[in-house]
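Severity: low
Component: inverse-folding endpoint
Summary: output formatting inconsistent between runs
Steps to reproduce: submit the following structure tokens with default settings.
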């Protein structure tokens, strides 16, 4: 994005079906003030209030998205980082914390990952998809291993061209930005051999009747 402002970049992404959110400079947290919300967690320094605010704002935006005017206003003269909202237009992002976890999963999904937007994060990868059923943000498990997070309803992902205070950055892979490719549709996480919890936990939840159920 060398020659365009953040406002122009966010507006172009909105045309492609992505809602950009302002994040605080050098970090991953929503800039609630830039969006017109009172950041109550700053007054109390309570983590539970921060998580409630972030999840609530993200879910609300996915159901009632901002207008182009809203987005341009948020990012006018803005120099902080940029997030992309999960859940809007059924967007789901696989956030692999480490490159090794991504590579292990990608072995059987190279065709999919070559036809959908993918970004490099400081230590891993983000895979942008659209799901055919509502999906809530959660942890991401591949087999018994926890490999990252799912960013969907109630969540957001840090996106290019954001940079962190420690120097880490986010960038789209060559020819795999949202301006190059449309996110590929999937049925659900299970169709990709992924899940929000490990198979072992699902087994124990089922045996102990702790709220887990299979679809009929």
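Observed output (run 2 of 3):
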């Amino acid at each position: 994005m060398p020659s365009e402002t953040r406002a122009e970049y966010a507006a172009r992404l909105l045309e492609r079906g992505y809602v950009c959110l302002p994040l605080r400079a050098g970090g991953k947290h929503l800039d609630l003030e830039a969006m017109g919300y009172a950041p109550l967690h700053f007054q109390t320094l309570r983590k539970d209030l921060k998580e409630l605010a972030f999840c609530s704002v993200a879910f609300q935006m996915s159901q009632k998205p901002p207008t182009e005017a809203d987005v341009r206003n948020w990012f006018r003269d803005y120099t902080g980082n940029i997030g992309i909202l999960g859940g809007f237009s059924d967007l789901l992002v696989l956030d692999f914390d480490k490159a090794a976890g991504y590579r292990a999963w990608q072995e059987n999904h190279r065709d999919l990952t070559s036809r959908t937007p993918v970004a490099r994060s400081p230590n891993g990868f983000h895979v942008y998809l659209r799901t055919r059923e509502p999906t809530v943000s959660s942890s991401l498990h591949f087999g018994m291993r926890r490999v990252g997070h799912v960013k969907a309803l109630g969540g957001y992902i840090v996106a290019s061209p954001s940079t962190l205070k420690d120097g880490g950055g986010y960038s789209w892979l060559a020819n795999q930005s949202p301006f190059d490719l449309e996110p590929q549709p999937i049925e659900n996480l299970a169709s990709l051999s992924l899940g929000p919890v490990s198979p072992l936990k699902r087994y124990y939840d089922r045996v102990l009747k702790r709220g887990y159920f299979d679809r009929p």
